[in-house]
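Subject: sequence -> structure tokens, single chain

Hey, anyone have a minute? Need the predicted structure for the following. Not urgent.
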Amino acid sequence: MEFNEKLKKLRTEQNLTQEELAGKLFVSRTAISKWESGRGYPGIDSLKVISKYFHVTIDELICSEEIVTLAENEKKETNKKITSLICSILDCLMILLFILPVFGNSAAEGISSVALFELDGISGWLKIIFISIAGLSVLNGSCGIVMSNYDKPLWNKFLLITGIITSLSGTVLFILARQPYAGMICLFILVMKGFFMLKSA
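Reply:
Had a minute. Here:
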């Protein structure tokens, strides 16, 4: 008997609905539904809670092949979480644009290097776009770091995608606006994200 069938049997023997069991195990009803339909397995911690609640051993709940699958799935999920966290930290590195003198500023004396807030040799709307791109990237990274403490894979995926978009936009925008150093910082961040994402795939 597979894990999903065992879990359903244990639940029905105690006359519990999926929602009631979810409340007792401190998981969502969707998680119970997923496990009972065979579309996934609980993590090790959830397995311990299930075995304790139903007074059965983990070996009684899950067979050796399922344990291997569970371990592989957990490893993949851990790698995804680590990758999301690294990419979020890389997004936060865009704060360097506000601090480092990487922008070329045209002035009467010639071209000088300044940080983003000191940049005044360009039009106002372009400076607003620069600040928006860098600010959104830092905000996205900060949200990603906070969300890494929660088990929200969809949010992590969303923040990863928006991080890629802001890095790519920043790279293209800064290079087209003839700000190569700022563009190189964005490109470096983008390449590092790609490297870590490929490594975890």
